[in-house]
Amino acid sequence: MKIIARTAKPLDTQADVLCALVFAPHASKKAGLAAPLAAIDRALRGALSEALKQEDFTGKKDQTFNVATLGRIKAKKLVVVGLGDPAKITATELRTAFAKIARLANGEKAKTLAIALPDGLEPHFRAIAEGLCLGAYRFTKYLTGDRKPKAHLTQVTLSTTQKLGPSAKRSIDTGIQIAAAVNASRDLSNEPPNVIYPQTLAQAASDMAKEAGLKITILDFKEIKKRGMQLLQAVGQGSVHEPCLVHISYVPEKSKKRLIFVGKGITFDTGGISIKPAAGMQEMKHDMSGAANIVGLMQAVAALKPDVEVHGIMACAENMPDGNAYRPGDVWTSYEGKTVEIVNTDAEGRLVLADALTYAHKLNPDVLVDNATLTGACVVALGTTSSGWYANTEEGAEIFNAAVARSGEQMWRMPLLEELRDQLKSDVADIKHAGDRFGGSITAALFLREFIGPTKHWIHADIAGPAMADRTFRWDPKGGTGHGVLTFLAMVENADAAV
Fold first, then answer.
1. Model confidence over 296-312: pLDDT tens digits?
2. Residue 398 structural domain
3. What domain count does the chain have?
4. What is the maximal distance between C-alpha atoms in the chain?
5. Same domain, yes or no: 164 and 216
6. What is the pTM of this model?
7. Does 427 map to a domain?
8. pLDDT of residue 32
């Protein structure tokens, strides 16, 4: 999408849809309609002010009003959107508001959109651009004929009456790059499992790394077995698509901190021998959302070029039930050296993450973060609009919580209850990989903690996956995966101050 900002009157911009944004209250008895509505109202011969009065439009947050222009202005349709109290506006709220505007424009089959901005929004141009590009996202690759959208939003013009500073274009370009990275992760998750499997997921990461100038290392199945990553081996050996481990690196010359992010890349999860019910199994193509987030994060990091070392690690496998599949009752030795008793092959994500976390902690990170669509238990606990996360230190928790606040993604800290660790005791191995029915997300986190080595600060994010509802514009059933990229990027951008 092309986004242009310019100092101009909104009526001078040719567009399919004109959107006028106003703060609350949008008018006063003395001044009448606030800019930019006054000029539009004059062009519409007072019809706008009369309609707004009848609809009791006050400009409160999320309030919208549509007006047919009847050819009296250049735009075919006018939409007035309220932003609420200007004293309370944040980058997060603006990102969401502009995402909704982009969706509205797509719903109107608009190719071009003009937005008349109130004064004072230039410092938020990055968030505005992010919102527009994220909100306009649609995965339509496999739609044909009448199902294929006839139009999509290609250009947005931001009009303001204030003179724009030299950083305006740079901020917009940054927002576009970040949104493109998030949308890349959405695309990967939305691809069908016959297209995205371990090797093609690794190839997508390789293509991104090559284009972005990042270093990438891919450990194939032979190397995985050679290094003793038996947990990753066990999960993936039942598929014709062999498992792999992907390591993407961004290492600037004068980096002061090292952050490592790990993602679960189960490209399809049948449950293995502990096979899942058929209903809804098609959604298990999203079980690689954690790895997709890593690809998007590293693409964003390459665009921003921060002075912090960032590594993205993806454990990729397909969990299938064939004659070579791993079984309940098996005992496998992890890359860390601990032996693990398998009790449920549908709890495969924590196994591939365990070996990936061991690989990661050997790189001596200042902060280690893993993310995965790991447990249905977390969705039961928090619903489909929030992800859960765990931290092994209070300092690490403060770091991550601050990043969540900056990103606007909805996540909730969960407790690492030590008494539930007893559920992981095994009679035949060092540890079982799953506990009882109750506290399933917590015992999964406790299992992963066994493999972080001497890492001081570790965060585990149990991200809401394909069930993520339409509460946020970033992640919805038609839009992709779970939470993650924006929060992780916020950690990277504030790494020097945070760790």
1. 999 999 999 999 999 99
2. 196-498
3. 2
4. 83
5. no
6. 0.94
7. yes
8. 60
| Residue 228 falls in which region: left (phi positive, over 0), alpha (psi -120 to 50) or beta | left
| Catalytic residue (one of 276, 338, 456, 471) | 276
Contact status, residue 157 vs residue 128, Cβ threshold 8 Å: no
Marked catalytic residue, from 126, 264, 350, 406: 350
Q: What is the pLDDT of residue 317?
A: 98
pLDDT digits (tens, 9 = 90+) for 333-376: 999 999 999 999 999 999 999 999 999 999 999 999 999 999 98
Percent of the chain with pLDDT over 90: 73
In a domain, 410, yes or no: yes
Tell me whether residue 276 is one of the annotated catalytic residues.
Answer: yes
Structural domain contains residue 191: no
350 is catalytic: yes
Torsion over CA: 292, 295, 299, 301 (sign): positive
How far apart are the C-alpha atoms of 3 and 37, rounded to whole Å? 22
| 419 and 482 both lie in a single domain | yes
Q: HSE on the CB side for 169, CA within 13 Å?
A: 5
* Cα–Cα distance, 446 to 450 (Å, whole number): 7
Whether residue 246 sits in one domain with residue 136: no
Residue 462 sits at φ, ψ, to 5 deg, of -95, 90
| Of 333, 335, 448, residue with least CA distance to 389 | 448
Half-sphere exposure in the Cβ direction for 383 (13 Å, CA): 8
What backbone phi and psi angles, to 5 degrees, belong to 385?
-110, 5
pLDDT at 468 over 70: no
34-48, 224-238, 348-362: range with lowest mean pLDDT: 34-48
Q: How far is CA 303 from the centre of its chain?
A: 16
Report whether 357 contacts 268 (CB < 8 A).
no
